[in-house]
Amino acid sequence: MRIRSYVLAIMCVALSAIAMGCSSDRSVAPSTPGAQLDSADAAARTTADFRNDSDATKFFDSAIAYAVFPKITKGALGIGVSDGRGEVFQDGVFVGYAQATSVTIGAQIGGQTFSQIIFFQNSFAFDKFTNNQFTGQASAAAVAGKSGSSAMADYNNGVAVFTSNNNGLILAADIGGQKFRYTAK
Questions:
Q1: Distance between CA 125 and CA 159 in Å, rounded?
Q2: Which terminus of the chain is less hemmed in, N or C, by CB atoms within 10 Å?
Q3: Residue 28 — pLDDT band, cuts 50, 70, 90?
Q4: Which pTM does this prediction carry?
Q5: Count of alpha carbons within 13 Å of 106, Cβ hemisphere only?
Q6: 97 contact partners, CB below 8 Å, separation of at least 6
């Protein structure tokens, strides 16, 4: 009975996340000046971490823009949901805020937080992102602790994605997708 309650709660959260993701007119920008400062500080720290990653550092020079998400939180028990907010930079200049959400279904259990950076190689890919038409594909994973890290070594369709595990344990063989929403500053 207890597991059934957990599954029902996760399904409610997943449906809420889907409903929130369908609304494109809501701003994803922090609502207070203090929250904006916190967002900027977290984005700067996370960007510095990715600049120190030997695989990711070259993309800062070749990308026309990037979106950095300091903390995306994912929880899963059959159905997985994730949510995180970040900042978007074009030619090194802050241009807006972004939100990353996902809903996945499959054999998965656990929870984790991770950081993610998405590099845009060309205007076409970046325009898809800023027009809220960009989605990413979820994948199979088994990552534990802070040492987990994954990267796509080159651009694929004008996009390169790097993820760094912050904390937690998640075992997953799931299907679903990541959706992004953008709000200009």
A1: 7
A2: N
A3: very high
A4: 0.80
A5: 15
A6: 27, 28, 29, 30, 39, 85, 86, 87, 88, 182, 183, 185
Cα-flanking dihedrals φ and ψ of residue 171, to 5°? Answer: -115, 125
Which residues, other chains included, contact 145 with Cβ-Cβ below 8 Å and sequence gap of 6+? 165, 167, 168, 169
Q: Other C-beta atoms within 10 Å of 11: how many?
A: 15
Residue of higher predicted confidence among 89 and 26? 89
The pLDDT score that the predictor gives to residue 5 is: 47
Distance CA 71, CA 167 (A): 10
**Cα three-residue angle 56-169-109, rounded to 5 degrees:** 120
| Residue 126: Cβ-neighbour burial (10 angstroms; 0-12, 13-18, 19+) | buried
Average pLDDT over residues 66-91: 95
- What mean pLDDT value characterizes the chain? 81
b/e map of 68-96 (b: 16 or more CB within 10 Å)?
Answer: bbbbbebbbebbbbbbbbbbbbbeeeebb
For 56, 69, 116, 141, 146, the CA distances from 150, given in Å and listed in that order, are 10, 15, 10, 10, 12
Beta-sheet strands, E only, within the chain: 65-90, 93-120, 135-137, 141-144, 149-151, 159-184
If we measure between CA atoms, which residue out of 50, 87, 84, 80 comes closest to residue 161? 50
